[in-house]
Amino acid sequence: MRRTSLVTILVFVAGLGIGYFGRSAVGTLQQRCTHKADLAAIEKLHQEDIEVTLSQDPQGLIDVWSDDGVRIHEGSPPVVGKQAIGAENEKVHAQYPEFKVLKYRTEITNVQIADGWAIEVGNVEAIYRMSTKDEPVNLKDTGLRLLKRQSDGSWKFALVGLK
């Protein structure tokens, strides 16, 4: 009787251990797959950002933002909300109809992803011209971007701050 109880207990404890470690391994594998999918979706946002910035596509410049996005530029008040960002874009384009981005590149040096949010730190390099008569302006900046996973798995900018 004792031997049977001891064997039963040992088998039970072994089963718990196998189940615990097996679940941990599966959970870790799922996290890795999710992380890879998130990184791929974030890279897609980066490419979209480059394309719409270079083309200055009005709708595309809005579509990269989450509905409650915040854009912060040093020396200016924050622009809050996708619609307000679109309105500010329209105002700038009306003021500078010949504005053209000649080069735009981002170099992300660090990305941290947690619970549907991603924090990116990196550098932005751009060359733009306010009008065809103006000399090109070089911009090199360091910034922080907060990204928000959307319900469809895509990512959008929730906050962009450049100094």
Structure description:
The chain has 3 helices and 6 strands, in the order H-H-E-E-H-E-E-E-E. A hairpin with a 5-residue loop joins strand 5 and strand 6. It has a 6-stranded mixed beta sheet. By secondary structure, it is an alpha+beta fold. It has one domain: Nuclear Transport Factor 2, Chain: A (Roll).
List key phrases describing it.
Nuclear Transport Factor 2, Chain: A; 3 helices; globular; 163 residues; 6 strands
Write down the Rg.
Answer: 24 Å
What is the quaternary state of this protein? single chain
* Physical arrangement of strands within the biggest beta sheet: 2-1-6-5-4-3
Let me know the average pLDDT.
86
Order of helices and strands: HHEEHEEEE
Determine the fraction of residues in helical runs and give it as a percent range. 40-55%
Gap from first CA to last CA: 75 Å
**Uncertain runs:** 25-30
Strand content: 35-45%
Give the helix/strand layout.
Elements: H1 2-55, H2 58-63, E1 65-73, E2 79-80, H3 82-95, E3 100-114, E4 117-129, E5 137-149, E6 155-162
Parallel strand pairs: 1-6
Antiparallel strand pairs: 1-2, 3-4, 4-5, 5-6
Short description:
This protein is α+β, with helices and mostly antiparallel strands. It has three helices and six strands. It has a six-stranded mixed sheet.
